[in-house]
Design goal:
Number of helices: 2
Radius of gyration: 35 Å
Helix content: under 10%
Low-confidence stretches: 1-20
Largest sheet: 26 strands, antiparallel, barrel
Number of strands: 46
Structural class: mainly beta
C-alpha cells in the first residue's frame, strides 16, 4: 500500500523530561490497549521539549516507559547536538540508553562558522544522562573532506580512537583506554591511558603548552604553565620557570569576578644563589601586581592597584611585564550626572637607574571635585574643579595644595554657522611648602605658606565650510583661539609637581586654554592659536578618506623658563598637525607631527603606513623626536628616529608567516629586536614556531633569544598560537 496521505497525530501519556505529554507522529500506528504499547512505523517523529527523534520504526511501552527505535535514527537535542544511530533502546527521556553504531555531532563555532565535533562508536551505554561509555570509539574536531576520486570521505587530519571511551559529564572529562593518535588515518602514537576535558566545559584545567627560551642570564630554560579553574567565577595559572643557570622561579596569576567587580593578581618569586666576595648568598627576588574594581552602586565605585618589586631589573630580566615606574593607588570615586568626586592616594616605585628613589613623591590624600553644567549653546556654562593634594618624600620638597579652577563659557552659533565661545577662567591656590629651594629668592624655605591667584580670558572662533559632490562631502574649518593670561600663571615661587619640562606641544594641546600638565605652572604669556582642519568623507557612509589638521601658536611674550625644544618657548611656536590619508582601500597613512618653525624640518613625528592585500599586510611605523634640551643648552634626553616593521603573509588556507623588527636609524643602525613566526592552524589542529632576538640595556641580560614552539589540538589541548 502506498504511503498514507495524512499524518496521524497521537498524544501518549508518557512521563517525559518536562513532565508533559510527548507527541508522536507517524505514517502508521498499532496500539495495544491492554499492554499500553504503541508500534509506529514510517517517518516516525517524537517531539519533546528536550529532543526530537526521527526513525523508521519506534516501539513505545507506556507502562515500563521504554522506547526502542530502529533504522535511520536521528535525534536533535536542545543543546544543539545531533545523534545518528542504527538502534537505540532507552527510557522516554533518553537519559538512560543503549545505542549501537552511533555518531554524535557536537556544535561549536570556528571563525564565525558553525562546525561540529564528531564522536563515533560501535556501542554506547548512557546512564542518567551524566555518564557515557563508548566501545571502539573515535573523536575528532576536524571537518571531513569528500574525495571525488575515491568517492569516499578522507580520514580526518587528527583523531583519537580507543577501545573504550568514558565521558563523565559531571566531572567534565573524557577518558581513553588503549588509545591511538591518528594522523591522516595512520596511527602514529599509542597511549594505554589518556584523558582531556569534556567538550562541554568552557574552561579546562591542565598544562598549557610550554614556552622554551635561551638567554645570556638563564641559559636554556622553559616556562611550564598550569591552568586551574577554582570556581565558575575564578581561576589561577601557575607557571614555574626552570632554567640551566638559575634557580627555579614561580609566577602565579589569579583572576576572580564578583557580582559587583573583579580583581586580578600576579605574584612571582625566586631565591638566587649569588657569590659576593667569595661568599654565597641567597638573594630573594620577586614582584606583585594586583588590581581590582568594585561598583558599590550605580553611581559609586572603588578601585585599587598594587605594584611593587624587589629590585630595578627583576621584572625585566624575568620577562614579567616590566615598567619603568610602578604605581600603587587606592581610589573612591562617584559620578552623579555631570558632577564627579574622587578621593585618591598614590605610591610610586621608580625603577630608572638615573632617578633617586628617595625623591619619589608619595601622595596621601588627593581629593578631586568637579561640578559641571549641562553644556548648551546660548547659555552660560560653568565648570568648577577643586583639588586638594598632599605630596611628601623621604628626601626633597614636601607640599600641600588646595587649588580651585573656575571656568565660565558662553558658546553660540551664528546664522552663517560660525561658532563663538567666550570664556572666563579664575585660578586660585593655597600652598604649604616645606624644604624648598626657591629659585626666585635663592633661599631655602623650611615651612612657609603661599598663595597664587590669576584670571584668564579666552575667545574661540571657528567657521566650517562644506562642499558636497556626487560621492564625497568635504569640510574645511579654520579656527582661532585667543587666551589672555597673567604672569602669576607661571609662579616659580611654588614647587612644580606637574613636571612642566616634560611638556611637548602637539595639535591635541594646541587649542586647550591651559596646555601644560597640572596647575603649578601654566603659561604666563597671552597667546593666539590658529589652525585649519580638512576632512573628506564618503557620502552617506561617514567613512573618512582624508583628514588634515595643521596649526601654530603665537605667544606675545617668550616662555623663557621652558626647555628649548618644548615648541612654545619662542614667540612663534613650532608648526603642529596630523593627517590620515586613505587613497585606496588597501592603503592607510597617518601621522602626528611637529615641524621646526625655523628650518621647516621634521622635529617630531609618529607615523604609520598600512598596506593591505587580500592575504597579506605590511605595517611600517616611525617614532621620531628631537633631543630634550634645557634652557642652558644641555642635552637631557637623546633624540630618536625609531622604526618598526611588520609583514604578515597568509599562504593557502591555513599557513601564515610573520616577520618583524624594531630599530633606530639615527646615524648608525641600532637594533632593538627582530624576529619571525610561522603558523599553521585549521579547525582541529595548529602549530607555530617563532624566534625573537631582543636587545636591551639590562646589565643582567643584555641580549636574549626566544625560541617558542607551540601546538594545539582543538578541544583536547589548546593553546594561543
Amino acid at each position: 500500500m502506498d504511503k498514507i496521505l495524512f499524518f496521524l497525530f497521537f498524544l501518549v501519556s508518557l512521563n517525559s523530561h518536562s513532565n508533559e505529554k510527548i507527541e508522536i507522529n507517524a505514517d502508521q500506528f498499532t496500539y495495544d490497549k491492554e499492554n499500553t504499547r504503541i508500534y509506529a512505523t514510517g517517518n516516525v517523529e517524537i517531539i519533546d521539549q528536550e529532543f526530537k527523534l526521527y526513525a523508521n520504526k519506534v516501539f513505545v511501552n507506556n507502562e515500563s516507559k521504554v522506547l526502542s527505535a530502529r533504522e535511520k535514527i536521528k535525534i536533535f537535542n536542545s543543546d544543539g547536538s545531533i545523534l545518528k544511530a542504527d538502534k537505540i533502546v532507552a527510557d522516554n527521556t533518553l537519559e538512560n540508553a543503549l545505542i549501537e553504531n552511533n555518531y554524535i555531532y557536537i556544535p561549536r563555532i570556528y571563525k564565525n562558522e558553525n562546525i561540529f565535533l564528531r564522536l563515533a562508536a560501535k556501542k554506547v551505554e548512557r546512564r542518567n544522562k551524566d555518564w557515557e561509555q563508548l566501545e571502539y570509539g573515535t573523536f575528532t574536531a576536524c571537518e571531513l573532506c569528500y574525495n571525488e576520486k575515491t568517492k569516499k570521505y578522507d580520514p580526518p587530519l587528527i583523531q583519537l580512537k580507543a577501545k573504550k571511551i568514558i565521558h563523565d559529564k559531571k566531572k567534565l572529562n573524557v577518558k581513553y583506554y588503549d588509545a591511538f593518535l591518528d594522523v591522516h588515518g595512520k596511527s602514529v602514537f599509542y597511549l594505554p591511558y589518556f584523558s582531556h576535558p569534556s567538550p562541554l566545559v568552557k574552561r579546562k584545567k591542565g598544562f598549557l603548552p610550554p614556552s622554551i627560551f635561551q638567554t645570556h642570564y638563564f641559559g636554556l630554560g622553559a616556562n611550564l604553565p598550569y591552568y586551574y579553574p577554582l570556581s565558575e567565577f575564578s581561576d589561577i595559572t601557575v607557571t614555574p620557570k626552570i632554567s640551566q643557570k638559575k634557580n627555579p622561579a614561580l609566577l602565579i596569576e589569579h583572576r576572580k569576578n564578583f557580582k559587583n567587580g573583579e580583581i586580578k593578581n600576579e605574584f612571582s618569586g625566586t631565591i638566587e644563589n649569588q657569590t659576593n666576595n667569595q661568599i654565597k648568598e641567597d638573594r630573594k627576588r620577586g614582584h606583585i601586581n594586583s588590581e581590582g574594581i568594585f561598583f558599590l552602586n550605580p553611581k559609586n565605585y572603588a578601585s585599587y592597584k598594587l605594584q611593587r618589586t624587589t629590585d630595578r631589573n627583576y621584572q625585566h630580566t624575568y620577562k614579567y611585564k616590566y615598567d619603568y615606574i610602578l604605581e600603587s593607588n587606592v581610589k573612591l570615586e562617584s559620578l552623579r550626572g555631570f558632577n564627579s568626586y574622587s578621593l585618591q592616594s598614590y605610591l610610586f616605585q621608580d625603577n630608572r637607574r638615573e632617578f633617586d628613589r628617595k625623591q619619589t613623591p608619595r601622595i596621601l590624600p588627593r581629593l578631586l571635585v568637579n561640578w559641571r553644567s549641562n553644556p548648551l549653546n546660548n547659555t552660560l556654562n560653568y565648570d568648577t574643579n577643586i583639588e586638594f593634594i598632599n605630596f611628601y618624600r623621604t628626601e626633597g620638597t614636601d607640599s600641600k595644595k588646595l587649588f580651585i579652577n573656575q571656568n565660565f563659557t558662553f558658546p553660540t552659533i551664528l546664522n552663517d554657522g560660525t561658532l563663538l565661545r567666550l570664556g572666563g577662567h579664575l585660578n586660585a591656590g593655597l600652598y604649604n611648602v616645606k624644604k624648598y629651594d626657591n629659585p626666585v629668592s635663592s633661599k631655602f624655605e623650611n615651612n612657609v605658606y603661599k598663595n597664587n591667584f590669576f584670571p584668564q580670558l579666552s575667545l574661540e572662533v571657528s567657521k566650517p565650510y562644506f562642499k558636497i559632490s556626487k560621492k564625497t562631502v568635504s569640510t574645511f574649518t579654520p579656527k582661532v583661539l585667543f587666551v589672555k593670561s597673567t604672569k602669576n600663571a607661571f609662579n616659580r615661587k611654588i614647587p612644580d609637581e606637574g613636571n612642566i619640562n616634560n611638556f611637548d606641544l602637539d595639535f591635541i594641546d594646541l587649542f586647550n586654554v591651559n596646555r601644560m600638565h597640572g596647575t603649578d605652572r601654566l603659561e604666563q604669556s597671552s597667546r593666539l592659536d590658529y589652525g585649519v582642519s580638512y576632512t573628506s568623507t564618503i557620502k552617506d557612509s561617514f567613512d573618512n578618506l582624508t583628514t588634515i589638521q595643521v596649526g601654530q601658536s603665537h605667544q606675545f611674550d617668550r616662555n623663557k623658563y621652558l626647555n628649548k625644544n618644548t615648541g612654545i618657548n619662542e614667540k612663534f611656536s613650532d608648526i603642529v598637525g596630523n593627517f590620515t590619508i586613505r587613497p585606496a582601500k588597501a592603503i592607510n597613512l597617518n601621522s602626528y607631527f611637529v615641524i621646526d618653525k625655523d628650518n621647516f624640518s621634521i622635529k617630531t613625528a609618529y607615523s604609520n603606513l598600512l598596506i593591505k592585500q587580500k592575504n597579506s599586510y605590511l605595517l611600517i611605523g616611525n617614532s621620531r623626536y628631537a633631543a630634550v634640551i634645557d634652557q642652558d643648552g644641555e642635552n637631557l634626553i637623546d633624540g630618536k628616529n625609531q622604526f618598526s616593521v611588520k609583514y604578515d603573509q597568509k599562504f593557502y588556507d591555513f599557513w601564515n608567516f610573520t616577520a618583524y623588527s624594531t630599530f633606530d636609524k639615527k646615524g648608525k643602525l641600532k637594533l632593538y629586536n627582530y624576529g619571525t613566526k610561522i603558523k599553521y592552524e585549521d579547525e582541529c589542529f595548529g602549530m607555530s614556531f617563532s624566534w625573537t632576538r631582543q636587545y636591551t640595556h639590562n646589565p643582567e641580560d643584555p641580549t636574549s633569544n626566544n625560541f617558542i614552539f607551540l601546538f594545539s589540538l582543538k578541544e583536547i589541548m589548546e593553546s594561543d598560537l
